[in-house]
């Protein structure tokens, strides 16, 4: 059974997993990130891998390679993390540093959302004659597109769904970037404004809505309407065959998908409505980034 190590690097945490060629995760370890310094951040990555190896019966000699998912813009060919808004790794040579540390030649790198999308497509959905879109709704909002088995990258920054402007009713009917009005921090800020309170967590907002508290209804209505507008843009541009959602906001609150579909239906023409039947929430959940990074070692798009 061939195995690889998958690493999912974020501004809050770093997860490392031992992944089989079929996408099974044998073991997972997680450590906190340290984005205060580029070398301290890299040291945390090494710590995650070392902890993973300690808890398994495998050594570096037993694995095929290492796959790494990094936020932001990535130079996949040269193994460089080019730009991130939550890490101190501008132009950081991730692959070269990992090779130097572990002595492994087969190391691959890609954007973290691409890695998560690859897992969803490869493990659950794999079809090479379709357009597949993975959307993550979490601290940020982004998407990854797999067209006929290959990532659509544009000039390197394709899929930044969170940058698409939508008409926000809660912000004096201004056009705002989707991420600013529908991601986790935006939900918290909107709730504080609507409820006129100083502090509330995103989790508390969704909890209040589920319990039927009327005060939270305008917040959820606004957020789902904004998301529907952004998804309508994707639908018009790509007309995808399938769309899978991940990220903590929607994975932890799956009722959102039904609400989003209801609002999206009002935008879609009859010829576009097929996507409503092909929208689903990730079954791999928070593990898809690690699994996708590991699978990337065996064959990439």
TrEMBL record:
Pfam family, one: ROK
Membrane-crossing residue ranges in chain numbering: none
Keywords: Kinase, Transferase
InterPro entries: ATPase_NBD, ROK
GO terms assigned for molecular function: kinase activity
Keyword Flavoprotein annotated: no
Entry annotated with the keyword Kinase: yes
Highest taxon of source: Bacteria
Family: Belongs to the ROK (NagC/XylR) family.
UniProt protein name: Kinase
UniProt organism field: Peribacillus muralis
């Amino acid at each position: 059974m061939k195995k690889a190590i998958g690493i999912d690097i974020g501004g809050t945490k770093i997860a490392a997993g031992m992944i089989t060629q079929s996408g099974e995760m044998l073991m997972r370890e997680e450590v906190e990130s340290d984005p205060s310094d580029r070398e301290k951040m890299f040291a945390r990555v090494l710590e995650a891998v070392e902890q993973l190896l300690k808890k398994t019966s495998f050594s570096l000699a037993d694995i095929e390679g290492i796959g790494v998912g990094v936020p932001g813009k990535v130079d996949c060919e040269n193994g460089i993390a080019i730009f991130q808004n939550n890490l101190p790794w501008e132009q950081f040579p991730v692959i070269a540093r990992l090779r130097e540390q572990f002595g492994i030649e087969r190391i691959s790198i890609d954007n973290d959302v691409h890695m998560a999308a690859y897992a969803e497509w490869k493990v659950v959905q794999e079809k090479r004659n379709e357009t597949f879109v993975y959307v993550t709704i979490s601290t940020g909002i982004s998407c990854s597109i797999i067209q006929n088995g290959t990532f659509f990258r544009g000039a390197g920054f394709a899929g930044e769904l969170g940058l698409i402007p939508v008409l926000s009713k809660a912000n004096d009917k201004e056009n705002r970037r989707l991420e600013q009005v529908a991601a986790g921090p935006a939900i918290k800020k909107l709730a504080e404004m609507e409820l006129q309170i100083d502090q509330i967590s995103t989790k508390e907002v969704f909890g209040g809505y589920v319990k039927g508290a009327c005060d939270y209804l305008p917040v959820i209505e606004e957020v789902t309407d904004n998301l529907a507008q952004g998804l309508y843009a994707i639908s018009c541009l790509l007309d995808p065959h399938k769309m899978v959602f991940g990220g903590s906001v929607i994975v932890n609150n799956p009722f959102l998908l039904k609400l989003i579909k209801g609002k999206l239906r009002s935008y879609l023409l009859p010829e576009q409505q097929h996507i409503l039947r092909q929208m689903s929430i990730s079954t791999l959940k928070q593990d898809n980034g690690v699994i996708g990074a590991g699978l990337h070692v065996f064959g990439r798009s």
